[in-house]
Amino acid sequence: MTYETYYKQSDKILRSKAIANHNAFENVLTNEAAMVNMGHEVSINFRPRLRNSDWDLSGTATFALNRDYTTALPDGVRQLIQPDNTSGYNLPQFFRLGRNPLTFVLYDYKGVYKTDDEVPVNPLTGQRYRAGGEFSAGKFFRAGDPIFTDINGDYILDENDLVFVGNSQPAVTGGLSVFTRYKNWSLRTQFSYTLDRDILNTALTDRFRNYDTPTGVIEGNQTMSRGLRAIGCLQCMASTWGQCGLSQCVRFYAFDSLQSLSL
Asked: Looking at residue 60, what is its pLDDT?
């Protein structure tokens, strides 16, 4: 049996940083980020003694616990949210000091507004709950729109309302290699596994994209399929998925729908 432990700190990691829009370009490369990677790995070799010399059996089993932590971000900030431009879904990529950079953050989906009266109203301004952040002002929620929790209570849905929904880094990884021989015949097999990780159901999200504009009818910048988008959410909730898969499915689909909402 072999046991190994490691601790690795990576400083001056290159990443893109947004700058003021009056410059000639929007982003610059900076090396202000840092990350720590640590873990434990165990390898067990076995070769039982067989009575029949025609047979031979040996193998190796491995177990690994790996953890990553963000230790520094550009401009000395404690947390940073940027869109993931590599997945094709424009998902928010969350970075916070002391937390794993593979953390999933999405909007907390609670259902669909049945009527306009169900939409919360800001008592200070008299305006209904609306979308903010990258969305232009004046896009208010109404009947048929998904219900997203307003985490900070400002009646504006933006990046401040994102919540943790999972992590794609496995808690345990490992593998099993087995070699078997009988006389002049041999067989080698290799297995690998991961335990306790979260995966966003992007395959089901792609299916729900058909509910966005199923007829292809577009009026200006507004789609004509708001009702069908809500039906997609309800169908997802009525699926036979387990609790974990259902929660991620609903939340992810709702977030993806919001990206293309025209209110």
From this structure: 96
